[in-house]
Amino acid sequence: MIKQESELLELLISHELAIKNLYLLFAGLFPGHTDFWTCIAQDEQTHSEWLECLRSKKTLGEWFLSMSRLKQEGIETSIAYVEKQTARAREGNFSLLEALSISRDLENALIEKQFSEVNESVPVEIRSVFMDLLADTERHRKIFTEALEAEKRRKN
User: Fold this and answer.
1) CA–CA distances in Å: residue 156 to residues 13, 94, 152
2) CB 96 within 8 A of CB 25
3) Nearest to 128 by CA among 75, 50, 19
4) Is 119 exposed, middle or buried (0-12, 13-18, 19+ CB in 10 A)?
5) C-alpha distances in angstroms, 79 versus 16, 22, 71, 72?
6) Rounded to an integer, what distance in angstroms lies between the CA atom of residue 155 and that of residue 153?
7) Collapsing DSSP states into helix, strand and coil, what is residue 1?
8) Which pLDDT belongs to residue 145?
9) What is the DSSP string of 80-107?
10) Contact partners, residue 25, CB within 8 Å, separation at least 6
11) How far apart are CA 10 and CA 15, in angstroms?
12) Residue spans per domain, the chain
């Protein structure tokens, strides 16, 4: 893998870890929901490990060069957004509704931007990792949507 592809993969890994850190902060902010946030944060750690396994795949560089629509700037922008939300969380400036809403939006963005292009043209060893990521991200989106709706009902 040449430097550009390596950097893109590292950004994807960093993105997963940034989201994990945000969710861990939410676990501390919302003591009644610690297990909820911690479990999802652990999933984000697992996602970063899945991506790390791609480092040794020679086809990854070819796919990033010829087929991937993943853009460094987009991933960097998303990481910056997550870090901004993390800074807010450190200050305690979140309600549970806001945390759930932001988390759902993050998971939606991952589905739409990062995983929308996974199809038969993607090399099988890459596709399997991205399909697992897509399935977990979709599961997270549903969990956050349901939790958000439950919290809204509880507030009303």
Assistant:
1) 39, 19, 6
2) no
3) 50
4) exposed
5) 9, 11, 13, 11
6) 5
7) coil
8) 95
9) HHHHHHHHHHHTT---HHHHHHHHHHHH
10) 86, 89, 90
11) 8
12) 3-155
pLDDT tens figures, 2-50: 446 567 888 889 999 999 999 999 999 999 999 999 999 999 999 999 9
By C-alpha distance, which of 139, 20, 15 is closest to 81? 15
What is residue 33's predicted lDDT score, i.e. its pLDDT?
96
Nearest to 64 by CA among 16, 6, 10: 6
Tokens of 96: 């549970």
Q: Give the right CATH number for 3-155 from 3.40.50.2000, 3.40.50.2300, 3.40.50.10490, 1.20.1260.10.
A: 1.20.1260.10
Q: What digits encode the pLDDT tens for the residues 82-132?
A: 999 999 999 988 899 999 999 999 988 875 565 555 556 677 778 788 888
Is the Cβ–Cβ distance between 117 and 68 less than 8 Å? yes
Q: Let me know how long the chain is.
A: 156
DSSP run (H or E) holding 131: helix 124-155
